[in-house]
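Quick one, T. Sequence first:
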Amino acid sequence: MRLPQLLRLRPFRGLPFTLCGVCLCWATCLAAAAPTAPQTAFFRANTLYTQGQYAEAVEAYEAVLQSGLVSGNLYFNLGNAYLKAGQVGRAILNYERARRFLPSDLDLEANLRFAHSLTGAEICQSPLWQRLVFPLAHRVTTDQLVWFTSVAYTLLFVVLAAGRLWPRRPQWLLSVGWGVAACLVVVTLSLVQQLRTSDWQRHAVVLTQGDTPVRFEPAVSGTVHFSVTQGTRVRVLDVRAGWWQVARCDGRRGWVEKGPLEEL
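C-alpha cells:
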C-alpha cells in the first residue's frame, strides 16, 4: 500500500487561503521589517520534505504551528513528514488532528489507514446504527454543522411564517416545511453527536513503540488489564498524578502512565 497523497502545497484551501494571502501582503507592505510569514515557512517546510530532509521538515512544520497557523493541510503534511522520518505514532497523531479540519478527505483517510497498518493499531469506527441516525457526524466539521443547523432553523421559521401569513396555504409549502423539519432533525442530531463524542471529550494517541500496558489501578504495581499499541486512539476519562484513565473503542478502560500518550 502506498501513500496516495504525500504533500499539500498550501496551508489553506480556496478562499480562506486567498484572504490570508491578501492580508499578509497588505501587512507586509505596511511593516518595515516584517518577520518571516507563516505561509513562507510552510512553503520552506514543503521544500525540505521534497528534498528528503524529513527531520528538518518536521521541525519547520512544528515551527509553523508554534507561530499560530493551524490547518488540516498543515497537520496532514506534518503527519507525512513524521511518517517518512519513521515516527509512526506521531504521524497518526497529526493525521487525527487533521481529521478535525478535513473529516471527509480521502487522501487523509488512506494515509491514516496505511499508518495504522504499520503498527496494527485498531481503527475506531462508529456502529452502523450511529452512522444511520447521525449521518453527518464526523463527516463534516463542527463549524459546518453549526452553520447547517442555523440555516435549517432559519428556513423553518420562514416557512412557518409564510404558512401563517399566506391566506391559502398551498400543498407545496407544507411539503417544503416537512422537508426542512426533517433536515433540521438530521443536522441537529449529528451536531449533538459530534459535540458529545469529539469536541466535548478528550482523546489521546499512543506514541511509544510496542505494547503499552493499561492497568486496573493507577500504579506501576497494578495488574495489567490489556495493552494498546503505537498509534491507538483512546478516550481520556480521568487524570490522576501522572496517570490517565483511558478507554478503547470497545469500551474497555484502565490506567496508563501519561508518558506514552499525547492528547489530540
